[in-house]
UniProtKB/TrEMBL annotation, chains A, B:
The modification N6-(pyridoxal phosphate)lysine is found at K196. Its cofactor is pyridoxal 5'-phosphate. PROSITE patterns: AA_TRANSFER_CLASS_4. It comes from Mobilitalea sibirica. GO terms for biological process: isoleucine biosynthetic process; L-leucine biosynthetic process; L-valine biosynthetic process. Pathway: Amino-acid biosynthesis; L-valine biosynthesis; L-valine from pyruvate: step 4/4; Amino-acid biosynthesis; L-isoleucine biosynthesis; L-isoleucine from 2-oxobutanoate: step 4/4; Amino-acid biosynthesis; L-leucine biosynthesis; L-leucine from 3-methyl-2-oxobutanoate: step 4/4. Belongs to the class-IV pyridoxal-phosphate-dependent aminotransferase family. This is Branched-chain-amino-acid aminotransferase. Pfam families: Aminotran_4. It catalyses: L-leucine + 2-oxoglutarate = 4-methyl-2-oxopentanoate + L-glutamate; L-valine + 2-oxoglutarate = 3-methyl-2-oxobutanoate + L-glutamate; L-isoleucine + 2-oxoglutarate = (S)-3-methyl-2-oxopentanoate + L-glutamate.
Amino acid sequence: MLDIKVEMTKTPKELPSADNPLKFGTIFTDHMFIMNYEEGKGWINPRVVPYQPISLEPSAMVFHYGQEMFEGLKAYKTEDGRTLLFRPNKNAERTNRTNRRICIPEIPIEDFVQAVKTVVKIDEAWIPTKPGTSLYIRPFIIATDPFLGVRPSHSYMFMIILSPVGPYYPEGLNPVKIWIEDEYVRAVKGGIGEAKTGGNYVASLRSQVKAHDEGYSQVMWLDGVDRKYIEEVGAMNIFFKINGTLITPLLTGSILPGVTRDSVIQVCKEWGLAVEERRISIDEIYEAYQNGTLEEVFGTGTAAVISPVGGLRWGDQIMQVQDGGIGPVSQKLYDTLTGIQLGRIEDTHNWTVEV
Amino acid sequence: MLDIKVEMTKTPKELPSADNPLKFGTIFTDHMFIMNYEEGKGWINPRVVPYQPISLEPSAMVFHYGQEMFEGLKAYKTEDGRTLLFRPNKNAERTNRTNRRICIPEIPIEDFVQAVKTVVKIDEAWIPTKPGTSLYIRPFIIATDPFLGVRPSHSYMFMIILSPVGPYYPEGLNPVKIWIEDEYVRAVKGGIGEAKTGGNYVASLRSQVKAHDEGYSQVMWLDGVDRKYIEEVGAMNIFFKINGTLITPLLTGSILPGVTRDSVIQVCKEWGLAVEERRISIDEIYEAYQNGTLEEVFGTGTAAVISPVGGLRWGDQIMQVQDGGIGPVSQKLYDTLTGIQLGRIEDTHNWTVEV
Ligand SMILES: Cc1ncc(COP(=O)(O)O)c(C=O)c1O
Ligand SMILES: Cc1ncc(COP(=O)(O)O)c(C=O)c1O
């Protein structure tokens, strides 16, 4: 158990009004959690303080060598006023998996969850309640040694900030159009692709700009070796329903092991759907599209939960899926997962954790 | 021409004494350069201010999505008291190459060089003069938008900090032992390997820790596709002299185009040495080692200029080079390049730039 000191703000901000669209990731609550790491002392000084800028030496290693990691999860307000988190232990576990890969000291799972709960409780009034809204929780760690030279830092800051968010896609559950990237690569086996660290996201920017310019909202990545196996989409894992079977890329080290991905696999198996985790090539997708067996495509991720995919563009080929609409499995998964998250559907897996 | 405002420190620090060993990257001078970027305004407000911490929102994009880049070059004091930079235009050009890859707005070459010259001039007294010492110059750019979500930032800070440094290897020009990594990958074609951005360095940490634990000071990377072609070493490019010919990996997008690498190629060609830029596999190196034609191996980089390699470890194989000593080409290159940098040898290429 962490002994978390709390310093409440003396100047609380005004809560966003109920009809504020809450553009994703732009508004932050009154408080944040901070804990420091110092070599020889471990993780120390856990505290909740007013949301405020942080001051770092210009030589702080995070600015130079990218030793940083983040997580993302959400808190939801139920109709009867409870606050629920969705599988926060999974984010804590993934934090440590990321940390091991990039040489950041691990954080005990229960301390991570306690820190999340504590700061969410304090800013509970910020959790929005309109359909599709939630409180986005961003834990992150940065390397703070004032040192130029490539080695793991000896000091870190672990912080949690909170942001009330509207639906990820302002239009609601709407099919997205996806650009299949065949020039740039996001990550490769043996690299840092399965870690949730800045280096994977910066690698994606240029493709994303290109895709946006062409009218596509997301980029789908192919593997860096054979340049033909599907990896994942910007900030989502990806599923294909082909001829009745759900197929999603295997976790081979270059893609993020998504919490939503894991939940979708479990739920679909319980529904009796065939689910395969395996390598799947873009040629196989294209073939299924051509012979009419590509039934549904959807992305999974904390931000949008389920994102139906209405179209894919691969070079000169444009594949329309579900006539550009929402498929039945996508819709049912969205309703089920958000139902569990909002406490409307019985949580048979014990996935939700009350704050 | 930038109109650079200067605010001098009122509390100058004590200069390091002449027998301070100047551990690399730990001491910083009295001033730093800052310039901001704002969308619609471009790069604005260039200034030199006292060296001080910077204050950022916890949501600043650099902490989350790794949109950051850096450069590294050095200023040297000549025996007749002049201050020389070595090919600063190359660092300015590489900055923009990095920036294009990771969607940071470019900086005009002449502005970059002017900024470097200005801040170096102001802290000229900090340039150490003992053999092997210099003033390390670290320009870097960070994304500052307070925003959670993956897209290029709309605001940035470009900064230059300065650090007086001793020889990179405290023991002087001493052969290093190199660990050839066959499990992890640093970068892959199509990725960000040729950009000087944090994501490449964080990817290297785990291997580096492993190598250190085994008594090796540096890691040599193999390519991410075939896992057998030589890429580069930690913070150096790499050269092999096999049977009289110098061979260095071709720039194929996954390795940094080093300024020292480029200088070495030019100088060696002028000396009449055969130089090949091409793919070279670890098997070819091993074969050359076995048949006695692996004559020299050395790394090239700003920090150590030339690093003779005395030994390589590849799985269970240990290859000793030059009986673990310094080869004649390595020594001659070191003497020549540092000679030019220190103004002792005629600079026929116009590589040095006086501050
Ligand atoms: C690269 C990437 N892949 C997949 C996901 C989906 O993971 P999760 O379902 O845990 O949100 C995310 C977002 O978190 C991501 O950033
Ligand atoms: C990854 C990497 N490769 C090579 C180099 C050598 O480049 P340069 O000679 O420009 O210093 C560096 C250092 O700058 C580096 O970080």
